[in-house]
Amino acid sequence: MPVEPRSLSDSDPEAAHQSLRWLKDTALGMVSTTSFPAIIGVADAMMKSANIFLVGYEKTGGGHCTAIVRGGVADVRMAVKAGEETAKQFGQFVSSSLIPRPPSNLQAVLPILPRLEELEGVGQTNMSSGAIGLLETRGFPAMVGAADAMTKSAEIELLSHETIGEGLCTIIVQGSLPNVAIAVEAGMHEAERIGELNAVMVIPRPLNDLERSLPKTKQTEKPQEVRLPLNLEERQKELVPVEAPTVDVQEQKKIALPELSDLSELP
């Protein structure tokens, strides 16, 4: 039976802070795969199998991704087991680890503790309103072609894309489950036509915490339109008298011309 994950209550800041401090003293669980869609499916299985917090993902290059969770030792053990089984079903399992009580200096050095600070105030763990679809290709052109086919085949929203090395690119979409399923199938055919399809994943009912963990495209602010009034009253220009400049006219000297009779006598 699925277990409802714990949440950091955003309605009570003090309770959220206490939960965060408790979280720092809990066990640490990690499951690693060689595919981004696979690690999202692994994280979904881990969150729905035990009372754990999803801290986030660590992408170490070469296509390797790790899901990081925190919680009680028993819960983390159950979550790691569920994540490992899910990764093996996908054929993408690399390794897993459970640390019952990680020391503080280990948390300070690794990129784990800073992400716990981001969890403060996060308290929505109920189901998301739409399904999530992920399609991973080897090569950017195949991913772009798949994204184009997905958007044209069904009413879905493109959330973002993710790259994890080794030429692996993932397009992430969201929408109703039927539309996401149709879009993913269309994207698969187009990706195989253009290049290499590596993995696909459809999460029918993702938790809000899982949805928040996905990369999202930064929204750019649209410039606000400046509305001008329809009728602009023209201001009457004031006439300013301009004095004509005074010009000093110098009297020209008269030059005496020779007589015509004198010119005819010239040799």
Instruction: Quote the distance from N terminus to C terminus.
Output: 136 Å
Mean pLDDT: 79
Which term fits the overall shape?
elongated
CATH superfamily of the largest domain: BMC (bacterial microcompartment) domain
Q: How would you describe the overall organization of this protein?
A:
By secondary structure, the protein is of the alpha+beta class. It has 2 domains: 13-118, BMC (bacterial microcompartment) domain (Alpha-Beta Plaits), CATH 3.30.70; 131-213, Alpha-Beta Plaits (2-Layer Sandwich), CATH 3.30.70. Helix content is 37%, strand content 24%. The protein has helices spanning 13-24, 36-49, 73-90, 104-109, 113-118, 140-153, 177-194, 208-213, 260-264, and strands spanning 27-33, 52-61, 64-71, 93-99, 131-138, 157-163, 168-175, 196-203. The strands form 2 sheets. It has a 4-stranded antiparallel beta sheet. A 4-stranded antiparallel beta sheet has the order 6-7-5-8, sandwiched between helices. A hairpin with a 4-residue loop joins β6 (157-163) and β7 (168-175). α2 runs antiparallel to α3 (73-90) and α6 (140-153) runs antiparallel to α7 (177-194). The protein is elongated, with a radius of gyration of 37 Å. The N and C termini lie far apart (136 Å). Mean pLDDT is 79; it is low at 1-13 and 120-124.
